[in-house]
Amino acid sequence: MNFIKRNYSLVCLLGALAVGLIVFSLSFRSSKNLLIEQATRTINVVTNVKWRLVDKRLSTLEQQLNLLSKKDQLIALLPPRTRINGPSTASGGLDEYVKSILYSQGSTRVWLFSQSGEVQYKSNPDLTDVPAEVLRFVQAPADAQNPTSISVVLSEKDPFPFYLSKRIIDTKGILLGTLCMEVPREFLSAELHNTISMDSLHSYLVSPQGVLDQQGRINPDTCTACKWGGGNYIQFAPRERVRDTWKVLTVFPISQIDIQHIAYVSLLDGLIAFFMATGVAMVIIYTLQAIQKSKGITHADIMLVQTTWNAVSEYSIKIISGFYMHLFADAPEIEPMFKSARDEQEKRMALMINTIVNSADSLEEFKGSIAQLAKRHVHMGVKREYFPVVVKAIINSVADQYGSGFTPAHKKSWYKILNQVSAIMIAEMESYQQTMRNKQGAQNPLPG
Question: Fewer CB within 10 A of the end CB, N or C, for the chain?
Answer without folding.
Answer: C
